[in-house]
Amino acid sequence: MAKEDEPFSLEVALRSFRSGPAVLRLYRNRQYMGGKEIELKEGLTRFEIRERLQESGFYEYEVLVEALGDGSFSNNRGYAFTEVRGEPRILLLEGKPQEAQSLTRALEGGGFNVHLEGPAGLPASLGEFQNYDSIVLSNISALTMTDAQMEMIRVFVRDLGGGLAMIGGEESFGLGGYYRTPVEEALPVDMDVRRKKNLPSLALVLCIDKSGSMADYAPGARKVSLAKEAAILTLELLADWDEIGVIAFDAAPKWVVRLQKCENRGAIISDIRTIRAGGGTAIYPALAEAYKALKDTQAILKHTIVMTDGMSLPGDFEGIAARMNEEVITLSAVGIGPDAHTDFLQNLARMGGGRFYWGSDVSFIPRIFTKDALIASRALLVEEEFQPRILRWAEMVKGIDWERAPSLLGYVDTSPKKRAEVIMTTHTDDPLLARFRYGLGKSLAFTSDAKGRWAKHWLNWPGFRPFWAQTLRWLLRSRAPGNLSTTVRLDSGKGKVVVDAVTPEGEFQNFLELSVRVVKPDFSAETLPLTQVAPGRYEAEFAALSSGTYMTNITGPESQLLDSAGASLGYPPEYKDVEPNTYLLERLASITGGSVISDLTGIFEHKKERPSAYLEIWMPLVISALILLFLDIITRRLVMPEALLKLREKRVRQTVVERSTQVMTRLKRRKEALGLKERPVAEAPSPTPTETKEILEKIPKAAVSEEKKEEPAEGKEEPSAPRTYTGRLLEAKRKARKERRL
To answer: Which residue would you say has higher pLDDT here, 627 or 546?
Structure first.
């Protein structure tokens, strides 16, 4: 920790494994402060940088070393931070900074160091938030913040003990899109008021683009998934007597949820989750369907929200907007991403009497839907003149003449949380000023404004300055008096918090009930008990594997903040040692029978030696032998019935015949495919008459008698004998017999 306008030193320790020139560059709060050439030596080299800080705040330093021939840049960065304590610092964020001059002067007159910024002045890192004791959001829309910035605001209050205030306006609370966000969680009021009050009924139809481009991924989810989440959050805002309908459109509209009362929320949510992306984009048919449904409903307020991320097919948009105006149906348009036709959507919203929203970040979809639904419901904006009422005489309102306090002209309706303490109310008992403790920090909500729209009578009121000075003084980060000295060390993937409790007289403070809240670079936090390890010394350990800043807060038994400290890790622990672990390599080589190679030449060449190893296989062989023995015994002892054997034999023969037939068929087809023909059998020469006579004489008479028996009856044609040699002889014999008869 340093003091204002007091010089101090930054010590840079560099460990190098070779000597040579390098450049050392210094950054403070992400701004380049300069660099210088240095000479590295082998081993450890230390450098000293002198600094002087003029203002209080949190300062984060980064050192970058650039050296020629360095093959690893992951371990070339180092981080450290310090805190300069002075007068309280407040960051005042105003949607229109020129309208916050009265509030700025009032706070500066109360002894605060005020930094007035527009929406772009919101810190982008947790370290930058630590520059301030409190953050004041005055008429700042949630659509100007990223999800990470909202999460940092919550961590700043809950885990680091900072203060948060939100002041009303048309872009604050629910009207600003803060419903169900980390910022709402840190505030003492809720944005959901429709289900808690008797308000005019609202009929709302959501027309959601489900074309193919909606299947693209946004950070963390698909576009269509964020659209479904937005529809569900909008449903949660509505009361049971309100009506909701959901149309998903691509080239044609489809009713996902028909216009109905919000009573059966479970079934409606299930239907919304069925939306799937795919197809073209045609907005007009979806608007026509929404118009048909809304014109027949009996709700007092009627509204349509259409959302798309691309270009729409043409349609009679002027005509549908005119018909909606006749039925008092308002229409808002939402364009998401760079491909959205913003000019067309802006003109459509103007014709429909609604609002146009465009977001480059698709994560804004849920905030846009809830913001527009609350505006359309006319539930939150109350513009009526009223006199503030004091409900509790806290230190914020003491010493002020409230009997002569002017009236206020409007406010944003909210509802207090259970643990909130309501200090002031409106004429309808709605919260005007509420506060509560959130984690280690504090937060408050003032639902009217502090400028010329609703508080114009207050600006010249003598109580304006003391009221705001006392209100924000309660919000400041406070530390209970204690004699604690806290240090944080990061090494080998672990962090250690060491707290020394010693009185100014040098006496140890023992048996204290202390705990530490550790905030890691990814904004996750954990609370650990501090264990006493020696007289007046308390310690705790935590995992520290990610590079970045680790912040710690020491708290007592009643969660009061006693001390703060932190440390930074420039790179993960595995990059700390860049030399090879020769002992481990030699040990591995010894166990596996290998060797440590120092020369890499030819390391990937193929070696002829093949490794060999012994494998015991006696057990599988014994098991196989036992199985075969068992099968052999069964085969010998088992007698099969004769009928079964015959059936088996028949099946085997049938199988053989079928296979033979298949083989002959394939051979015949193959022969035909090759164009081969069956070779004719050569005929033997016909015998001469002399040879025929000699042959007939040699034929036995028994054969002749047999031939007689086989002679056909007269008038019947004898069957032709086969054209073989013997057949021709028989035919010649028959002819000779006929001739003798004649």
So the answer is: 627
